[in-house]
Automatic annotation (TrEMBL):
Organism: Chrysochloris asiatica (Cape golden mole)
Taxonomic lineage from the root: Eukaryota, Metazoa, Chordata, Craniata, Vertebrata
Signal peptide positions (record): none
Stated name of the protein: Engulfment and cell motility protein 1-like isoform X1
Coiled-coil stretches: none
Gene designation: ELMO1
Domain of life: Eukaryota
Length: 742
């Protein structure tokens, strides 16, 4: 007879005593269970005790989380959170440096638990820590030289505890004083400071900016690029990551009028406040420092750094949104002058008649003819071409940049097309407008950064005007592809589709520079694109004759079973998921995998991203597959219904899924990428006996069906197909036949 559902068997430890094996009735109050445990060891005042997990997390058991206790869990009897908080509150105020240091170390560890954090905060613990940071440093200033290691550790543990306590979201960030902000900023501004103190100070500044508009203003006044540059020039990638995270946070929260500055101004970058983000990011010094000391450093870029670089890239391109969504005013003379300048550069101002000579009609006729050669749709008033948003005025900005900075190429394209027959000319104006719109879509200009994406492109950090240069390369590609396709005006959309494919394929190779991107495009000619398309079409060929369709229908269940087994095998291997936090992003991981018998999901927290599989016995928690009620995705997930910074964007929603079990219990996931999302949702649906409906399953089914059908249609009569692969031949006795080209 199976044990009752509400009974769990656990082991409970107590220092100095043998562990007890005990059955816990989940229907009984937790206080009654603790009293029973205390009575077994003859401990009085059971209200001063609590149970906590005996693993590395040391989290307290409460009425809210007690349902997470599974059979075989090891628990520990310990001091209650309220007692522990009271004792630590007193100990960190000790006059003994050693006692204070030990207390702060314990506080930094315990503050990760929300139950303890709530009790400590109730004692006004946050205020005590901020006072210690503000005044404690001066108090021990004289001792710093003779006790520097002790002082550094003490401040590090204090800041660590503060970060962990604030991370629970119990206390508002708006409550902190200017003195505290100045003190934290001073740790960042110092040329020589302990790495752990610097790291936590940067994390605090990032959280302040992201969570409070008032604190953003104050932090921005305290920090300048001049103070952050040395941290980017260092060799510690974690410090570099936190530094870029602070820049990103300030950039994200900067008011629009502070972002949109003249990107060619001469303001000294070293003394520039971080609120002037557009000016800063356009400066060669900061960009070149990130390129030299971060992107091209002689070490691999970890996931967190890649994410911060991606965020910086997105926020930089989002500066273009204002121009992208600004319509041209046909009556604005300054804007009309830009179009006149395009005409002047293309057709040479010296050839123009004197403004005072000739009739108005003659000049108007000449302008109309030239605007047609420039490829505008509206030959009479080209300003009307820029009234559509997107791309708005951004297209005109790109055209002017191309005309001024790549003048020879600009003139060649315009004159080359103006000398062709009408139906074969590539309209420069219309092409530039549509290309700008397309590039904005590819780079997702105007969208918030994804919380999980690491997709940054090194080449965009190699030039101060990277988007404009990107456009210049692509407009020349468009003209080249137009000629290769021998296109006419009716083929305009087809040409744009080919160009988009060329650009996307080149970007997937992650070129390290704009020149490398250009060379990649050279290898992706229209002929090459046709070959790639033909190859893909052959691989995905779908025979539509009735006998073939009947054959597909017959073998489809066998293929689906093969896909199902592959999905379940992947779930058995397991996946590392990142824990997302709306207050600040940290490298916190957890791992989940299916047991080999497909009956239990094992999961648990990890200190760092694992190398390879994580054994079942190292994962603390279990969830029987039989207890799973449903699998939900996207907006239906409980953790996607919560409002948080950067959580409501489409990319995160597309990677979110949750397992619902018991009553009001769930296990929430954010997949590392779309492939893992499909693997897990397919595998979980297969476990529940439901259809696998992901895009990956459809693609795998099409590919495997096509391969199987082609194999069955081969003429293999009298040819014996081996059951096992051929043996690998022995190594040769010598390698004299090898020719060394060097």
């Amino acid at each position: 007879m199976p044990p009752p559902v509400d009974i769990v068997k656990v082991a409970i430890e107590w220092p100095g005593a043998y562990p007890k094996l005990m059955e816990i009735d989940q229907k009984k109050p937790l206080s009654a269970i603790i009293k029973e445990v205390c009575d077994g060891w003859s401990l009085a005042n059971h209200e001063y005790f609590a149970l906590q997990h005996a693993d590395s997390s040391n989290f307290y058991i409460t009425e809210k989380n007690r349902n997470e206790i599974k059979n075989g869990t090891i628990l520990r009897l310990t001091t209650s959170p309220a007692q522990n908080a009271q004792q630590l509150h007193e100990r960190i105020q000790s006059s003994s440096m050693d006692a204070k240091l030990e207390a702060l170390k314990d506080l930094a560890s315990l503050s990760r638990d929300v139950t303890f954090a709530q009790e400590f905060i109730n004692l006004d613990g946050i205020s005590l820590l901020t006072q210690m940071v503000e005044s404690g440093t001066e108090r021990y200033q004289k001792l710093q030289k003779i006790m520097k290691p002790c002082f550094g550790d003490m401040l590090s543990f204090t800041l660590t505890a503060f970060v962990e306590l604030m991370d629970h979201g119990i206390v508002s960030w708006d409550t902190f004083s200017v003195a505290f902000i100045k003190k934290i900023a001073s740790f960042v501004n110092k040329s020589a400071v302990d790495i752990s103190i610097l790291q936590r100070s940067l994390a605090i500044l990032e959280s302040m900016v992201l969570n409070s508009h008032d604190l953003y203003q104050k932090v921005a006044q305290e920090i300048t690029i001049g103070q952050l540059i040395p941290h980017l020039q260092g060799t510690d990638q974690e410090i570099q990551t936190y530094t870029i995270a602070v820049i990103n946070a300030l950039f994200l929260k900067a008011p629009d009028e502070r972002r949109q500055l003249d990107v060619e101004s001469d303001t000294d970058i070293l003394d520039c406040p971080l609120t002037e983000m557009a000016n800063i990011l356009a400066q060669k010094q900061l960009r070149s420092i990130i390129l030299t000391h971060v992107i091209r450093a002689q070490r691999a870029i970890n996931n967190e750094m890649a994410h911060q670089l991606y965020v910086l890239q997105v926020l930089t391109f989002n500066l273009l949104e204002d121009r992208m969504m600004t319509k041209m005013d046909p009556q604005d003379q300054a804007q009309r002058d830009i179009i006149f300048e395009l005409r002047r550069i293309a057709f040479d101002a010296e050839s123009e008649p004197n403004n005072n000579s000739g009739s108005m009609e003659k000049r108007k006729s000449m302008y109309t003819r030239d605007y047609k050669k420039l490829g505008f749709i509206n030959h009479v008033n080209p300003a009307m071409d820029f009234t559509q948003t997107p791309p708005g005025m951004l297209a005109l900005d790109n055209m002017l940049y191309f005309a001024k900075h790549h003048q020879d190429a600009y003139i060649r394209i315009v004159l080359e097309n103006s000398s062709r027959e009408d139906k074969h000319e590539c309209p420069f104006g219309r092409s530039s407008i549509e290309l700008t719109k397309m590039l904005c879509e590819i780079l997702k200009v105007g969208e918030l950064p994804s919380e999980t994406c690491n997709d940054f492109h090194p080449m965009f950090f190699t030039h101060d005007r990277s988007f404009e240069e990107f456009f210049c390369i692509c407009i020349q590609l468009l003209n080249k592809t137009w000629k290769e396709m021998r296109a006419t005006s009716e083929d305009f959309n087809k040409v744009m589709q080919v160009v988009k494919e060329q650009v996307m394929r080149a970007l997937t190779t992650k070129p390290s520079s704009l020149d490398q991107f250009k060379s990649k495009l050279q290898n992706l000619s229209y002929t090459e694109i046709l070959k790639i398309r033909q190859s893909e079409r052959m691989n995905q060929e779908d025979f539509q004759s009735r006998p073939i369709l009947e054959l597909k229908e017959k073998i489809q269940p066998e293929i689906l079973e093969l896909i199902k087994q592959q999905r379940l095998n992947r779930l058995v291997e397991g996946t590392c998921f990142r824990k997302l936090n709306c207050r600040r992003r940290q490298d916190k991981f957890w791992y989940c995998r299916l047991s080999p018998n497909h009956k239990v999901l094992h999961y648990g927290d990890l200190e760092e991203s694992p190398q390879g599989e994580v054994p079942h016995d190292s994962l603390q928690d279990k969830l029987p597959v039989a207890d799973i009620k449903a699998v939900v995705t996207g907006k239906d997930c409980p953790h996607m219904k919560e409002k948080g910074a950067l959580k409501q964007n489409k990319e995160v929603l597309d990677l979110a899924f949750s397992i619902l079990y018991d009553s009001n219990c769930q296990l929430n996931f954010i997949a590392p990428d779309k492939h893992e999302y499909c693997i897990w949702t397919d595998g979980l649906n297969a476990l529940l006996g439901k259809d696998m409906v992901s895009d990956l399953t459809r693609n795998d089914l099409d590919t495997l069906l096509s391969m199987e059908i082609k194999l069955r249609l081969l003429d293999l009569e009298n040819i014996q197909i081996p059951d096992a692969p051929p043996p690998i031949p022995k190594e040769p006795s010598n390698y004299d036949f090898v020719y060394d080209c060097n």
